[in-house]
Amino acid sequence: MSDRAGVSVGTVSNVLNAPNLVSPGTRSRVLDAISELEYWPNRSARSLQAQRTHLIGYRLPDPGVSSALDVFLHSLVAGASEHGLEIVLFSGCKGHSDLDAYRASIRSGDVDGFVLSETNYTDPRIALLIESSFPFVAFGRAVASQPFSWVDVDGAAGIVAIVDHLAGLGHQRIAIVAWPPGSESGDPRVAGYLAAMVRAGLAIEPELIVRADGGFESGRKTGWDLLSRRRRPTAIVTVQDDLALGVIAAAADHGMRVGRDLAVTGFDDSPAAAMSTPGLTSVRQPMELVAARMIELLVSQLQDPEVQRSGSLLAPDVVIRASTLSPGVWGEVR
């Protein structure tokens, strides 16, 4: 392969084991040679030689938790592949705690490290992996005994931008549908709502801060309750697209037209946000960048176990769609 590609044996090894160290042009020549020679690396042999599996474990979220994590997973698989790694998926086992699955993988050496998502303030998985000195990176922050590698999206900044957008359209009674208190990702979003309302000079009305579990049906029920009040909000901010889609359904149940009679916003910019009617204004989390940064942090640990652990807070974007258009123009833009 090295002769066919016109490179050294070491360069071929880097393309197979650490492709990020090789320039795109050289990597392309080596991959072409590999394809022409129909070479397939033997994973077992590579693992024995390097004392690594080149596998990263990821615990699948429970069904219906968040459609945004589907986008994250696809980006994670693509990012891992760029570094010669593969993602191994596992789920919870009935009768056993999640920690049992992590302990078993650590003991058996099935994977080189873990990617965590759905973290919370005192996440037992993080405590276990720190105690075990096992490589991992988390999507989200937590309180821990020592620094660890994490990537997160600035949820507070995203909601601030959403409220600024709504206030700029003239909305004054802006409600928020948020998860129950104690959510590592949800609490900052509520904090962003409060800060933006104060900055816009709008009254913070406790009855407009509504707590709900995630998901479409929860959003529909909560939206129905909000819109059944004598003094309805003119805009409803939610902390999740699935909640927002439920609110849109509740508005239809009330005979209201979102974008004309009511503004609704989501968070995640999931595929459903663009396909809903009307299109849903939403905070977009840069999932591709999140996944790429997480893989970089994990690879640095695999290459140097003593590397300093650090975090990375990424900025979101707001995607404006028809669900927040000014009254009277809803039909012009989807």
Structure description:
With 334 residues, this protein is of the alpha/beta class. It folds into three domains: 1-41, 434 Repressor (Amino-terminal Domain) (Orthogonal Bundle), CATH 1.10.260; 51-152 and 287-313, Rossmann fold; 155-285 and 318-332, Response regulator (Rossmann fold). It is 43% helix and 15% strand. It is built from 13 helices and twelve strands. The protein has helices spanning 2-5, 9-17, 24-37, 43-50, 68-82, 98-108, 124-131, 155-168, 186-199, 216-227, 241-253, 271-275, 287-303, and strands at residues 55-59, 86-90, 113-116, 136-139, 150-153, 174-178, 209-211, 235-238, 263-268, 281-284, 311-314, 317-319. A six-stranded parallel sheet has the order 2-1-3-4-5-11, sandwiched between helices. It is elongated, with a radius of gyration of 23 Å. The protein starts with a helix and ends in a 15-residue tail after the last strand. Mean pLDDT is 87; it is low at 328-334.
Jot down its keywords:
alpha/beta, 434 Repressor (Amino-terminal Domain), Rossmann fold, disordered C terminus, six-stranded parallel beta sheet, 13 helices, six-stranded mixed beta sheet, 12 strands
CATH class of the largest domain: Alpha Beta
Overall morphology: elongated
Major beta sheet summary: 6 strands, parallel
Helix/strand-derived class? Answer: alpha/beta
- CATH fold descriptor of the largest domain: Rossmann fold
Please render the helix and strand layout as text.
Layout lengths: L1 H4 L3 H9 L6 H14 L5 H8 L4 E5 L8 H15 L3 E5 L7 H11 L4 E4 L7 H8 L4 E4 L10 E4 L1 H14 L5 E5 L7 H14 L9 E3 L4 H12 L7 E4 L2 H13 L9 E6 L2 H5 L5 E4 L2 H17 L7 E4 L2 E3 L15
Parallel strand pairs: 1-2, 1-3, 3-4, 4-5, 5-11, 6-7, 6-8, 8-9, 9-10
Antiparallel strand pairs: 10-12
Helix pairs in contact: 5-13, 6-7, 8-9, 10-11
